[in-house]
């Protein structure tokens, strides 16, 4: 869980059901149940694979 982060200003206008890619993290959707205008909540729907972990092996 990330309690505070930085994002593009356009995410203030996010609507539930639309997916957003957060760099190097995965795809997220706005949680319409727990979000407020002041504190949006995004849930990860798909994580990104960590291919660098395999390079070190």
Automatic annotation (TrEMBL):
InterPro entries: Rbsml_bL25/Gln-tRNA_synth_N (IPR020056), Ribosomal_bL25/Gln-tRNA_synth (IPR011035), tRNA-synt_1c_C2 (IPR049437). Pfam families: tRNA-synt_1c_C2. GO terms for molecular function: aminoacyl-tRNA ligase activity. GO terms for biological process: translation. It comes from the Bacteria. Residues 2-31 form the tRNA synthetases class I (E and Q) anti-codon binding domain. This is 50S ribosomal protein L25. It comes from Escherichia coli. The gene is glnS_1.
């Amino acid at each position: 869980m990330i309690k505070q982060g930085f994002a593009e200003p356009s995410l203030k206008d996010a609507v539930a059901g639309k997916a957003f890619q957060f760099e190097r993290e995965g795809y997220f959707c706005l949680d319409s149940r727990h979000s407020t205008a002041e504190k949006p909540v995004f849930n990860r729907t798909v994580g990104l694979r960590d291919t660098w972990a395999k390079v070190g092996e």
